[in-house]
Amino acid sequence: MAQLIGGLATSHIPAIGGAIHKGLQNEPYWKPFFDGFPPIHQWLGKVKPDVVVVFYNDHGLNFFLDKMPTFAVGAAATYSNADEGWGIPTLPPIPGCPDLSWHLIRELIAKEFDIVTCQEMLVDHACTLPFKLFWPEHAVAPVQIVPISINTVQFPLPTAKRVYKLGKAVGEAIRSWNSNLRVAVMATGGLSHQLDGERAGFINKQFDLQFLDSMETNPEWATQFTDLELVEKAGTQGVELLMWLAMRAALTVAGSGVRKVHSNYHIPISNTATGVLALETV
Ligand code: DHB
Ligand code: FE
């Protein structure tokens, strides 16, 4: 059976891509953010995942407000990037893993998740930028991906409880995949931020730190909040932290725990509180 080796999470602010492109990683503004990654690069060099299941939110590239699936699973052989152009130049297509995609799709539908299956799927900065952050030496990260898009754009959003259940079901499905490959789960987005409206620039450090702590010690903590409570606490776009919840839920399985490999929290990049986290299953 496939091995679920652990989870990764990072913010996906497009401006980070611009900084990578211009080589600004050591500038005073950027260094405290990029300094969060080298311990995770070392760990990835050791554990070497073959496939990454990515929980991310599409920002209007692949799904727009007229048709917005709550959960969509990619089942393509490759995923092309066609970003909105704020940050990193368009990246080469990322290879998919259709065998794991279809296994996940079958298992999720059997567990009553009404997902959209996507045999063609464009991916934006939320799916591409994290691979530049976690595998900076590679033009294309040495992994195959299965993207899972969770709506955090058009209300009503899925509840935190539902997202947690989805993550758990994805974790169980990965573990029942008949394969020798090593799989990691990844979350992209957050932490607290609000890009528009009267509260533009809103950041909530206390909530973010509590949420980060819950990732280690109390993974279901954030499921107590409704979508509007999450907006109040984390900002309109801070609800992207739902991806982190799905990633963490995927790592919960009876009798096993997680070890924190590394985390970092830095305010602000752009208008956003940034976080990065790596957890290893034990
Ligand atoms: C920013 C953050 C996001 O999550 C995003 O998708 C776009 C922009 C920002 O902080 O600039
Ligand atoms: Fe975003």
Automatic annotation (TrEMBL):
This protein's record includes keyword Cytoplasm: no
Signal peptide span: none
InterPro entries to which the protein is assigned, alphabetical: Xdiol_dOase_suB
Highest taxon, organism lineage: Bacteria
Domain Extradiol ring-cleavage dioxygenase class III enzyme subunit B: 8-273
Keyword Oxidoreductase (UniProt): yes
Keyword annotations: Dioxygenase, Oxidoreductase
GO molecular function: dioxygenase activity
One of the Pfam families matching this protein, by short name: LigB
NCBIfam families membership: PRK13364.1 (NF009901), PRK13365.1 (NF009902)
Name this protein carries in UniProt: Class III extradiol dioxygenase family protein
Lineage of producing organism: Bacteria, Pseudomonadati, Pseudomonadota, Betaproteobacteria, Burkholderiales
